[in-house]
What does this fold into?
Amino acid sequence: MNEYLSDAHRKFRKFIWAACAVPDPEERLNVDKYTDMVTLAKPVIYISIGELINTHKLLLEHQDSISSDHSDPLHELLEDLGDVPTVHSLLGDEANQDSESSEDCAITQYGKVEISFILTNKFDRLETNSEEFDFRRLMLSTKQMLVDVIRFQPGNSLFDILRITASEDQESSHYYIMQTRIRQDARTPDKMKRNHSLLGDSKLSIEEKKRKIIRNLRKLETLGVVSPDNQYQDIINEIAKDIRNQRRYRQHRKMEIMRLRQTLNGLNSKTFFYEEQIDYYNQYIKTCLDNLTSSGRTDAKHLSESKGKNKKQASLHYTAARLYEKGVLLEIEDLPISQFKNVIFDIIPCEQAGTFQVKAKFLGVDMEKFQLHYQDLLQCQYEGVAVMKMFDKAKVNVNLLIFLLNKKFFKK
It folds into this structure.
């Protein structure tokens, strides 16, 4: 019996280890922080009410085991969500949620009901912590300058290196390498250039870098990052760790580049998709306008032939007073209503479907021209804009102007 239990225990333990040995979600689902930018639709998950409540309960109970770092986004999310919800609160039935028996009945009745969630990123915003950013920049600048100094002036300890003056040969070698770095940075595209503070540090001599290193070490000392008691060995250890992890950093950068390329391809596909949609809608609108215009022109042609006229396109001639009576024209700035009879508007359809040229005359003298687009009127109507301006002076009723154009040109 004991032998059976031992064997079963080994098998079960092996099974548990295999079940827990899963790849990271980013690797398994091939997603990263840029995935949201290329998805055409937000992901949707389906979960039952019972599963939702149990998952929330388990996360609250074991959140410290899942993530011991209390700055982890998981803790912030759970804090925002609060206590475990009840079935009644999820269903919006606040009246019965105080009764435990009714809660048990509700779980039995509605626990298997599925609900859907559209996933959105709560942290989808630019997170900038100026203090953390300043610390990282200070640490990076100090490590880079230390590497430059140690490269040309080795020593037994950091104190010795910072204390002993560099020789002329060391300064010359340092100057030559730094000028080479500056020339390389000058050929680099602006978006790929190094940190501006690092570029400025490259122009310093060894002695100037030492003085700046000492100032930076004092700042880091006040932050508790380094200590003079161990001769600032902490920052040397950080540099050694960076050197040791260079291969890992390069692999990480390669993965990032590959994912960025995938993201770029996704963005290009998304752009192409939307451009196709725009072309499709533009073509559809143009076809509709062409059909309306051709219908109107056909009727106008028959009318002109019946009257013995040879005009290519029909046009409208209205006085401002007549348009004012129809309610199309509301007012003309700096012109009294008594003078509206002296103003004539010519509305002439253009070759492009849905485009009209409006000419204004005062006492028979051409004053101004205005290009009127039927789509602009429809857009104003869709957005609830009741009044628009022509010539920056004449205010017209959008709906009645559309009605007039439909009646006279599109025969609607």
Remarks:
- The two ends are 92 Å apart (CA to CA).
